[in-house]
Design brief:
disordered C terminus; 5-stranded parallel beta sheet; single chain; Arc Repressor Mutant, subunit A; Rossmann fold; 12 strands; 9 helices; alpha/beta
Length: about 240
């Protein structure tokens, strides 16, 4: 095992899940740390500084939400939440509390590996590059200095709210941004439950981007949870820091 390979901490009380993830992660070249309780997981996170944490919500000694909240007091390590709870309220709560992504059980190993790679890639990009105020992928150009957006060379006329939502999503490329976070950032804390505002703005954005919600190029809906800006799917040449 390469001692310089990224390390992943798996915190889950189900031995079968830990064993399954251990085999899959090691096969991909990752170093693996394991914990079956919240306290053991927090101790390993503090002493071993993993590159990513896979955290189960249903731990025997503490709720995963509590563990995440404590972890976020002193660490920005990417966290991928796992849970059998598939309600949108649980997903939104986890994302709002600082989780980077959320996968429900049972899950496919390829999906978990893909999301893990995306989170680690975002972390490397953020650490190695100065953020750039410009996104360009060969079709869509977003210039955050001039607050200009163009598609295939044609300037798009966006409202202030449309541009603000697009810019907010661009700050977290390929990651879920919850509806509540977007509403808080764009409309303010008093509007966190006004999801119809957000749906209308995203719908207009899609029309102007000629983006089909059934087969999105840039704006992907996570039903009941939020949205992703598909930077890599949109064209791949990204110049925006994560």
């Amino acid at each position: 095992m390469n001692p310089n390979a990224p390390s992943v901490l798996v915190v889950d009380d189900e031995a079968q899940i830990r064993r399954f993830l251990d085999i899959a992660l090691r096969a991909e070249g990752y170093r693996v740390l394991q914990a079956s309780t919240a306290e053991a997981g927090l101790a390993l996170a503090a002493t071993q500084a993993p590159d990513l944490v896979i955290l189960d919500l249903g731990l025997p000694d503490r709720e995963g939400h509590e563990v995440l909240a404590e972890l976020r007091q002193w660490s920005a390590v990417p966290v991928l939440m796992l849970s059998v709870r598939d309600s949108e309220a649980e997903k939104v709560r986890a994302l709002d509390n600082g989780a980077n992504d959320y996968v429900t059980k049972p899950f496919g190993v390829q999906e978990v590996m893909a999301r893990l790679r995306a989170l680690l890639r975002d972390r490397v990009l953020a650490a190695s590059r100065e953020p750039s105020p410009r996104y360009e992928d060969g079709h869509l150009v977003i210039d955050q200095v001039r607050r200009e957006v163009s598609l295939d060379g044609e300037a798009l006329s966006l409202t202030r709210k449309e541009y603000a939502v697009l810019a907010a999503l661009l700050q977290h490329p390929d990651r879920v941004v919850s509806q509540q976070q977007l509403l808080r950032e764009v409309w303010g804390a008093s509007h966190v439950h006004d999801t119809h505002y957000l749906r209308i703005v995203v719908g207009r954005l899609r029309q102007k981007l000629h983006d089909d919600p059934a087969s999105p190029r840039w704006l992907k809906t996570e039903p009941g949870v939020g949205y992703r800006f598909l930077a890599k799917s949109g064209g791949g040449n990204q110049h925006q820091g994560a």
